[in-house]
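Fill-in record for Copine 8.
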Amino acid sequence: MLTRAEVLPVNTGTEKVFCRNIRERGDEERFGRTEVIDNTLNPDFVRKFIMDYFFEERENLRFDFRLEKSIVGIPGKKCGTVIVTAEELGCCRDSVLMQFCANKLDKKDFFGKSDPFLVFHRSNEDGSFTICHKTEVIKNTLNPVWQAFKISVRALCNGDYDRTIKVEVYDWDRDGSHDFIGEFTTSYRELSRGQSQFNVYEVINPKKKGKKKKYVNSGTVTLLSFLIETEVSFLDYIKGGTQINFTVAIDFTASNGNPSQPTSLHYMNPYQLNAYGMALKAVGEIIQDYDSDKMFPALGFGARLPPDGRVSHEFALNGNPQNPYCHGIDGVMEAYYRSLKSVQLYGPTNFAPVINHVARYAASVKDGSQYFVLLIITDGVISDMAQTKESIVNASRLPMSIIIVGVGPAEFDAMEELDGDVVRISSRGKFAERDIVQFVPFRDYIDRSGNHVLSMARLAKDVLAEIPEQFLSYMRVRGIKPSPAPPPYTPPIHVLQTQI
């Protein structure tokens, strides 16, 4: 998901330079520079910076300070604090609901009147125009009333209220050679005045105007209504306090190979992460920033557990079934490697138990305050396909998403079926309420150059890209609005004091 955000630095040194990481190359580029504020230890910068925000990617920002005098710090004390606030640009999330009618349009059909429709064009910075909306065709009339339509402000004018919007009026023809009736121009700012004399437009045909001295117009188009609607976003819920609860489930079936052997997908290489570790770290390090306590349940399935060798498809990696939480992604990694030394890889590959485990928690919190994401990392073919489908269909009604990463060389046809991008998954004649599963094969992200950092970044980007829309689809269906964001934090004055 892409949104636009304004970043405003406040309360720091006299000048600051923003640098950001370039995702594809891993190096940095200068993004912007604040103005200089003289003779103050507590400046409040005015200049804002607009940058893209991606939920599914980590954007590293570096703040460079430029001071005319060096900071002389007091040992053991801080030498200043920088506070960065961010907000989404409202116009990028607004949509407008508009309705138009026309009066006395030119007659174009020989055996009838006209079949008019409108075509809206957004102007571009290079002076060209791009079609952004077409109305329906109203048959056999010179005084049409078109249905109200909804369009985003970004599509209509790219957030620029004064950018030209060109509207063309055509008479529809079956063969596609629609007859041009005329055109007019307006802007978002003009349209936002609503129904008034300012929004009655003469439709002009330049060719007719050039040929006929008495030409007035080819009819008029009138704006009947203009309503602004602000779409709530994923960030609105996060700012309102919604927590993303992240759970990990790891495949411990015997098909992964002996962890002590280099051929194993669970091989404990002392020098680099195995495929399971890379997938876990790539996804976990992005999503952990949306969980305030950084405590993550970590489960395993398909292993024999000590001391009696019973097979479990829902065991805690930390060995504590009453409290399977690990602190941070590093804690999950530690529990994962510890489990490899204590359990026996076995089978079969059952997904339903871990899905139902998370679903039980999701079913208890349906007020929008929490959303659950389950990451399943597996190497093989699902053994309980029917039960897994049923679990997913049931979970589609809950605040929950499932990410499946397939590691190893196996065929993952069944995983593609669970993904549901082509055909919505069903069980016992009942279809999933929402698409909540995203599957990717890890082998597609092996970087040929051996740069695992880039591989992990691309993996995280693709598996997390659908989460915001899946999240919003649940909130929309349930009619849950985001809670108001708390007021911004203002540090006490003494924290901002700096010795120069």
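KEY FINDING: DSSP finds eleven helices and 26 strands in the chain.
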